[in-house]
């Protein structure tokens, strides 16, 4: 980090006000002092590589140049990872330094994030032995090709076909229609030579559902598409410009039998199909990534909050009191209302991610012992938390951007790109509504079990408690608010269930009744997610090992989250809990008190995310607060500022002006 001496004086004053030890917060957020040291050490190593620095901002490059620069830097970054591993005999610690290097999304994201994990998770030990060493060492580069032009959400509807030919012991891949073309996979456009292709398996004319296959699609030497492969890039998007998303179609393309990933289902040489213990295990990589996305949401909220809070400490505009100098915009309560929820949410998502990671690890361990009982809970929880955290994080990033006024609209603030990248997570890895409806299925089953007095899984056991406690008075404490959110979820789950029953009594079948109740079902899932986020995050701060000074601030943040959402969803609470109008007025006042209490620590709290200037990549958010200098320095990099008079003056403007004189 930069030294205090060169800092903007407002930021120096802000840091002097901080009531807790920022380093303690950093170590707590990232796990330990050792984890912080190792992460910083690795980040230093990456940033020391001169070739990774960009000569001009990415925005001035063409689509093609941006991609090529992305690949160039991704390969150098990969070398740094490899060298670290060779030297330390372990992978680098979790870090976000790719953001400092690639800025947008790496063309290798899908290789590392889904191709390698799918081989590891869906391959037999022999298949892992064949492909993992090559993939991990980047001798082959791959992606996860599932979504098609016609189908993304409903994957049982995928149209890519893999027909088994027992004579040659091969699968024949085909994309018979335009809508069957793979569309979206990252890296597919021009980067990868392999992919996991999710396709409908046919044996002797019989369909056996969707399964993952490994296909080599480009020649390893020439990189030309192999015969029978049509592949390309899908073009510019809202973000993800360097992710190199592509399309792919096969025409009678043959792959050996061993290329079907067969940890779950298998196809024997003679074409016998052997079912796996649970066909949904084929969807395993998606579950893992959904858990990871909750962690990503924490990062994006932290990044946007750091930029907007630091900028708001530096920026002065208007007066709170006419007799005083222009105020730091961070002193306006409305600004605190916009920003502090992003700081608090980042901590909430982080704690939710750590909680989900534990659940994921336990279930994977159980699955390795053929125990599947907790898989539905993992799937349902990963779906709804991914859906709610990504949508909220997108909104928080946008709010931070708007809170920076005009300068937040500048690409150099890095807030527009951050929004484009964050909001993509609402759609990828399962569209929000679709995933919330998956959770709703689980909630309906849980509710029916609750009605029968059965024991429920831990994440929904509150449904039983709420059933018993519905008469208890509201308590204006964090624990009381957590219970309140559980009551809302309980109320919405019950109402959605009863709506389905109502339609069925009117003669509708279950599917139609489900569709007619689906707005309520989605809202029940959202309420369930909020109840989990509130409970998990409050428990995490209460059980944290932080010092009293830090603990006080972390509790304030967690309470801010609880109170913010109580006020945002007061209608639901009035409907489904015993909260009163007077309680809400007390909580409104409490919320405002929390903003004021957090205000002196705002800069310390975002410093506690420990995001380097290179990761923030923002004129508005750097540690030293040289906002105006940086805005001007970046503007001067515009190619239009490299010449005093642009040729368009002589070509178009001057002739127009002359014509106008006639
Ligand atoms: C330790 C963990 C953390 C590790 C951290 C590291 C992670 C790395 C993160 C870094 C990020 C890197 C990658 C970023 C990727 C960005 C690029 C994006 C990629 C993509 O988008 S890939 C494509 C993603 N596509 C989707 O998500 C498709 C969404 N659709 C579906 O998943 C399914 O179609 C469906 C679930 C919506 C419906 O499926 P289906 O029709 O087959 O099922 P039903 O609705 O009929 O339900 C039947 C029962 O099956 C259960 N079910 C469904 N899915 C699962 C599952 N995955 N697991 C378990 N059970 C499942 C249902 O609940 C139903 O059960 P029921 O009992 O009958 O009710
Ligand atoms: C940036 C980005 C990167 C991606 N990367 C990859 C990748 O690497 N590999 C890959 O395979 N895919 C990738 N995808 C594809 C992504 O997984 C899909 O776009 C996503 O799963 C949503 O599917 P869809 O596009 O078919 O949306 P649709 O399902 O068509 O959604 C459109 C609308 O229909 C609604 N809808 C659909 N079904 C239902 C239902 N059953 N009930 C109620 N409403 C419904 C949705 O709620 C939504 O409002 C990527 C997408 C993006 C945006």
TrEMBL record:
Its required cofactor(s), as named, are: FAD
Tell me, in one coarse class, where this protein mainly resides: other
| Ranges of residues in domain Acyl-coenzyme A oxidase N-terminal | 21-141
What are the Acyl-CoA oxidase C-alpha1 domain coordinates in residue numbering? 283-444
InterPro entries in alphabetical order: ACOX_C_alpha1 (IPR055060), Acyl-CoA_ox_N (IPR029320), Acyl-CoA_Oxase/DH_mid-dom_sf (IPR046373), Acyl-CoA_oxidase (IPR012258), Acyl-CoA_oxidase_C (IPR002655), AcylCo_DH-like_C (IPR036250), AcylCoA_DH/ox_N_sf (IPR037069), AcylCoA_DH/oxidase_NM_dom_sf (IPR009100)
Its recorded name reads: Acyl-coenzyme A oxidase
Name the keywords, alphabetized.
FAD, Fatty acid metabolism, Flavoprotein, Lipid metabolism, Oxidoreductase, Peroxisome
Q: Which organism is it from?
A: Chilo suppressalis
Q: Which residues form a coiled coil?
A: none
Under the heading Pfam families, the entry gives:
ACOX, ACOX_C_alpha1, Acyl-CoA_ox_N
The segment(s) forming the Acyl-CoA oxidase C-terminal domain are 478-658
Q: In which pathway does it act?
A: Lipid metabolism; peroxisomal fatty acid beta-oxidation
């Amino acid at each position: 980090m930069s030294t205090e001496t060169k800092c903007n004086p407002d930021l120096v004053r802000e840091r002097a006000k901080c009531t807790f030890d920022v380093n303690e917060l950093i170590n707590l957020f990232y796990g330990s002092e050792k984890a912080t040291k190792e992460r910083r050490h690795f980040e230093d190593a990456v940033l020391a590589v001169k070739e990774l620095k960009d000569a001009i901002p990415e925005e001035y490059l063409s689509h093609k140049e941006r991609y090529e620069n992305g690949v160039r830097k991704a390969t150098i970054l990969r070398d740094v990872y490899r060298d670290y591993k060779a030297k330390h005999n372990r992978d680098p610690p979790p870090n976000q330094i790719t953001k400092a290097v690639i800025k947008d999304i790496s063309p290798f994201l899908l290789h590392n994030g889904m191709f390698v994990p799918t081989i590891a998770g869906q391959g037999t030990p022999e298949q892992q032995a064949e492909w993992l060493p090559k993939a991990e060492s980047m001798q082959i580069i791959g992606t996860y090709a599932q979504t098609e032009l016609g189908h993304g959400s409903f994957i049982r509807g995928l149209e890519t076909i893999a027909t088994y030919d027992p004579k040659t012991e091969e699968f024949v891949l085909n994309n018979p229609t335009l809508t069957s073309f793979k569309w979206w996979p990252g890296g597919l456009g021009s980067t990868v030579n392999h992919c996991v292709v999710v396709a409908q398996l046919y044996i002797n004319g019989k369909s056996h559902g969707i399964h993952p296959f490994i296909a080599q699609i480009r020649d390893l030497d020439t990189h030309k598409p192999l015969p029978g492969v049509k592949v390309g890039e899908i073009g510019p998007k809202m973000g993800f410009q360097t992710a190199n998303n592509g399309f792919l179609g096969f025409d009678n393309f043959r792959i050996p039998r061993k290329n079907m990933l067969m940890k779950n289902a298998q196809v024997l040489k003679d074409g016998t199909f052997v079912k796996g213990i649970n066909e949904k295990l084929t969807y395993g990589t998606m579950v893992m990534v959904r858990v990871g996305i909750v962690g990503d949401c924490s990062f994006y909220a932290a990044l946007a909050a750091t930029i907007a809070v630091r900028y708001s400490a530096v920026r002065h505009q208007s007066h709170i009191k006419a007799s005083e100098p222009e105020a730091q915009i961070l002193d306006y309560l409305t600004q605190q209302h916009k920003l502090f929820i992003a700081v608090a949410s980042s901590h909430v998502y982080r704690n939710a991610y750590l909680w989900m990671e534990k659940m994921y690890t336990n279930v994977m361990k159980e699955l390795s012992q053929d125990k599947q009982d907790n898989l539905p809970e993992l799937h349902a929880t990963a779906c709804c938390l991914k859906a709610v955290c990504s949508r909220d994080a997108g909104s928080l990033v946008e709010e931070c951007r708007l809170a920076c006024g005009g300068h937040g609209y500048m690409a150099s603030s890095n807030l527009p790109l951050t929004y484009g990248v964050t909001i993509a997570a609402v759609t990828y890895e399962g569209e929000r509504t679709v995933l919330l409806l998956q959770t709703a299925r689980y909630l309906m089953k849980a509710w029916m079990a609750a009605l029968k007095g059965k024991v429920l899984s831990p994440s929904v056991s509150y449904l039983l408690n709420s059933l018993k406690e519905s008469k208890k008075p509201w308590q204006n404490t964090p624990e009381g608010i957590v219970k309140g959110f559980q009551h809302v979820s309980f109320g919405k789950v019950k109402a959605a269930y009863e709506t389905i029953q109502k339609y069925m009594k009117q003669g509708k079948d279950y599917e139609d009744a489900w569709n007619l109740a689906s707005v309520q079902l989605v809202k029940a899932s959202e309420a369930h997610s909020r109840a989990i986020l509130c409970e998990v995050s409050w428990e995490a701060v209460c059980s944290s090992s932080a010092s009293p000074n830090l603990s006080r601030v972390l509790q304030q943040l967690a309470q801010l989250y609880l109170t913010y959402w109580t006020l945002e969803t007061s209608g639901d609470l009035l409907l489904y809990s015993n909260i009163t109008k007077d309680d809400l007025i007390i909580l409104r006042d409490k919320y405002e008190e929390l903003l004021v209490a957090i205000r002196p620590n705002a800069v310390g709290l975002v410093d506690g995310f420990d995001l380097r200037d290179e990761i923030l990549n923002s004129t508005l958010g750097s540690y030293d607060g040289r906002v105006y200098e940086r805005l001007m320095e970046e503007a001067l990099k515009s190619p239009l500022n490299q010449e005093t008079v642009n040729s368009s003056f002589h070509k178009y403007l001057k002739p127009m002006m002359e014509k106008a004189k006639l």
